[in-house]
UniProtKB/TrEMBL annotation:
Organism: Paraburkholderia sprentiae WSM5005
Keyword presence, ATP-binding: yes
Keywords in alphabetical order: ATP-binding, Nucleotide-binding
Family: Belongs to the SNF2/RAD54 helicase family.
Domain Macro: 1-153
Alphabetical GO biological process terms: chromatin remodeling; DNA repair
Molecular function (Gene Ontology), one example: DNA helicase activity
Protein's name according to its UniProt entry: Macro domain-containing protein
Entry-linked InterPro entries: ALC1, Macro_dom, Macro_dom-like
C-alpha cells in the first residue's frame, strides 16, 4: 500500500513495526527510523532508556516496544547487524523471523493490526521477496492483519 506507516490506516489497536541495528548507538539517522525519531521523539527517548538498562546490549531477535498514542504502539525489531555501508547484507533473516513471532504474539494479545515499511530492504540490504514471505508466513497466515507501506514516489 502506498502511504505513510506513521499514519496507519484502519480501526482498533495498531503496532508499527520496524527494524533497528544491534548496536547501542542512537539509531534514527536514516531511513524509516529517522522519520519515526523526528515525528515521535518520546518513543526514541523511551527506547534509549530501555536499551541502556540492558547491560548485555542489543541482541538480534529482541523486540522493544513503545507507545505513540493510546491505540498505536511501536515495535523496534533488532534484526540488522551493524550500520553503514557493507559488502554483505546486514539484515538477518533468522532474527527478523524471531522478531516477527514476538510482534505476532503482541498483536494477538492486544487484538492489534501490524503496520510496517518494507523492512530490511534499505540499509539492511535484504531481498524483499524473502522478507515478504517471512511476513506472510509469520503474521498473515497466522491471522494477523498486516499492512506494508511504501512511500509515494
Amino acid at each position: 500500500m502506498t502511504g505513510d506507516v506513521l499514519a496507519p490506516r484502519g480501526e482498533g489497536p495498531k503496532i508499527i513495526a520496524h527494524v533497528i541495528p544491534d548496536l547501542n548507538v542512537p539509531w534514527g539517522g536514516a531511513g524509516f527510523a529517522s522519520s519515526l525519531r523526528r515525528k515521535h521523539p518520546a518513543v526514541w527517548e523511551q527506547f534509549q532508556a530501555d536499551a541502556l538498562r540492558k547491560s548485555q546490549g542489543l541482541q538480534l531477535g529482541q523486540v522493544y516496544t513503545g507507545q505513540i498514542a493510546e491505540q498505536v504502539s511501536v515495535a523496534h525489531m533488532v534484526a540488522q547487524h551493524g550500520i553503514g555501508q557493507s559488502k554483505t547484507q546486514r539484515l538477518r533473516y533468522a532474527a527478523l523471523a524471531d522478531c516477527l513471532v514476538k510482534v505476532r504474539d503482541l498483536a494477538k494479545e492486544s487484538g492489534a493490526s501490524v503496520h510496517m515499511p518494507r523492512v530490511g530492504t534499505g540499509h539492511g540490504g535484504a531481498n524483499w521477496d524473502i522478507v515478504k514471505e517471512l511476513i506472510q508466513e509469520v503474521l498473515v497466515d497466522r491471522g494477523v492483519a498486516t499492512t506494508v507501506y511504501m512511500l509515494p514516489r
